Amino acid sequence: MNKIPKIVLLLKKFYPKVFLLIALLSMSVTGNSQDSYQEQLKLKRQGAPTELIIFVDSLLYYNRHIPKDEVAEIEYYQALAYINSFGHKKGLKMLNNLLKRLENNPHLHIEALLQQSNSNVNLKNFTEATSQALEALNLAKKHGFKDLIAASNSALSLLHYSNNDYLNALAYLNNSLKLQKEENDSIGLSSTFNNIAVLYKNMFDFQTALEYNKKSLAISLAIDDFIGIGKSYSNIGRIYEASNEHQKALEYYQQALENNKAHDILNSIPYRNIGEVYYNLKNYTEAQKYNLQGLEIEKQLKNLPKILLIYSAMLNTAIKEKDFEKAFEYQKKIEEISHVNTVHANEEKIKMLEGQYKLYKGQQELRQIQKINTKNKIIFGTVSTLLLLAFLFTYQRYKNRALRIEKEKLYLEQSVLRSQMNPHFIFNALSAIQSSLLDNEPLKSAAHLSRFAKLIRQNFDFINQKTIPLQEEVDALTNYLKTQQLRFDGKFEYKINISTDVDSTLIEIPPLIIQPFVENAIEHGFKNIQYKGQITLNISRNEHYICYEIHDNGIGLSEIKKDKKLHAIDIFKKRLKLIGNGDEKTFKMESSPNGTIIKFWIKEA
User: Fold this and answer.
1) Where does 63-145 have alpha helices with state H?
2) Bigger pLDDT: 287 or 567?
3) Is 328 within the bounds of a domain?
4) Domain for residue 210, yes or no?
5) Element (H, E) at 200
């Protein structure tokens, strides 16, 4: 038995409440043995990512004795939690810092390389992703890890698939297939067969795709993998749907439904697939019926993104049925759920901050105990106390400042996004689409509806992103301008000129940074004009800056439209100021009765 420190005995005798606090804190955060914290870590990995992040912070603070190799492994799981919770950039940064320390654990080191490759694929950094996947493959071959050789081939296949290079993607999957057959890896084989089917489907070879889907189904049936069985039926249904064999698609989707019901599997995908088939067959009543059933499942699962997706499908169906009362009801639901989804995402961030704050409070309480026991000069020296207090003061100031900046960024970005999707704009746009429907122009109406739905989806996508590619910004702006042209019956024209030395797919900018000025030109500059309005957006490069110029020939803007308490220009400048590059100083506006010119530069990241 380990010898109990004298300080612990004294605390237990003279300060029983303090001792109880330490004991409870120690038990709840770290457990009392190596096996204990490893079991807790295993359980946390199966739960919410934010809880795992908080647990690891506490675990590493209160357990300084954990070996370095184990610390690296624990931080690896924390990096995966950041990827699952806050996106690939944060997790990728952590993995980059961890990679060298994981070299003593070859299997985990290779897994980390593959995770890096996957994250870089998602971030469209294909050169880095390829390098990491190839390095993982070479190391897996060196150590003889057949499972990781197969995984590396799958990662390389994903890279080629992402670049529409299906033949090379297929070659790598066949390498994985060979290894999985040698290892009798049934689950791996089933997954690879499905991936091969996806490739053949994209190459429009539906017959071969069906053969591989059916191979995957056979494996799932053999091992009683009921979740896999349901997925395979759905995948086969999609092949038939893609080849316009709607009846066969419905048969397989129904089999997926029956399988899921028989084994109490909550999955809305078969319902949504059937709803989509009936929608394409213009049987809107049946489409809504199955969408509603799928909606009930996702409500049970509390899966807000999928609930939002189903309501969007129901909105499209209601518009097709010309049931505008239902359409407005579903649009309202979409707005409410989008708001809840944003709040939920923010709550997850706040939850992590609260966990870190609780950890900080725990640190403060322990240090207070150290101050009470002044007799133990060796442990609680004056110099150490002052240094710790200085550290806490600096740390707290930094955290408070970071939190204030993050909250202000969120408020400013949401202010801009709400201004574009305000109820007045949505109502007028839907009214314009309704008018085109009444004019008996179905193709034109479908195009307008598709553009409007895409604009709504883009705004929902942007709401949680700090930056987006310039190409996405221009695409969203184009959809917005075309929607406004429909509203104002062609009262204005627009041009978007992008210089040839500006790669819009690589340049990242804050979302909807240009839109407020275009909106003001339309809503104010072109108000009561008797001639054709013209908006011109020029995007060019000047060394390390991307230059933006917005011209309009309206009546001039004596006052930019206000959004609650913040002036539109103030919102714009504050958003640029929070980036920290001084870009807000480049803003210029020249307004006269002959029009308005807006100019600003943003430093390339």
Assistant:
1) 68-86, 88-98, 106-122, 126-143
2) 287
3) no
4) no
5) helix 186-202
pLDDT of residue 24: 43
Contact (Cβ atoms closer than 8 angstroms) between residue 155 and residue 117: yes
452 within a domain of the structure (yes/no): yes
The verdict on residue 596 lying in a domain is yes
Q: Which of 161, 184, 183 is nearest to 171 (CA)?
A: 161
Residue 346 pLDDT: 60
Please say whether the beta carbons of 554 and 533 come within 8 A.
Answer: yes
> Which is it for the CA torsion 25, 26, 30, 36, positive or negative?
negative
Three-class HEC string of 25-83: HHHHHCCCCHHHHHHHHHHHHCCCHHHHHHHHHHHHHHCCCCCHHHHHHHHHHHHHHHH
Among 140, 139, 96, 143, which residue's Cα sits nearest to residue 115? Answer: 96
Measured in whole angstroms, the distance separating CA 289 from the mean position of its chain's CA atoms is 30
Encode pLDDT of 414-459 as tens digits.
555 545 555 556 766 676 677 666 666 777 777 778 888 888 888 8
CA dist., res. 90 & res. 72, Å (int) = 17
Residues 131 and 139 sit within 8 Å (Cβ to Cβ): no
Cα 338 to Cα 322: distance, rounded to the nearest angstrom: 24
Q: Which of 527, 585, 514, 599 is nearest to 559 (CA)?
A: 527
pTM of the entire predicted model: 0.48
CA-nearest of 592, 578, 293, 285 to 407 is 578
Strand (E) or helix (H) holding 446: helix 442-462
Q: What is the pLDDT of residue 352?
A: 53
Tokens for 418? 């709400």
Whether pLDDT at 513 is above 60: yes
The answer to whether the Cα torsion of 389, 395, 401, 407 is positive or negative is: negative
- Residue 228 is which amino acid? G
584: CB partners within 8 A, 6+ apart: 572, 573, 574, 576, 577, 600
Q: What's the total number of domains in the chain?
A: 1
Average pLDDT, the chain: 80
pLDDT in tens, 395-408: 666 666 655 655 55
Give dist(CA 329, CA 101) in Å, integer: 55
Q: Which helix (H) or strand (E) holds 551?
A: strand 545-552
Phi-psi region of 366 (alpha: psi -120 to 50; beta: other; left: phi over 0): alpha
Mean pLDDT of 580-602: 89
End-to-end CA distance of the chain: 57
Q: What is the CATH number of the domain that holds 391?
A: 3.30.565.10
Question: What domain range includes position 391?
Answer: 381-603
Q: What is the DSSP string of 263-303?
A: TT----HHHHHHHHHHHHTT-HHHHHHHHHHHHHHHHHHT-
| The predicted structure's pLDDT at residue 373 | 67
Structure tokens at 587: 């803003």
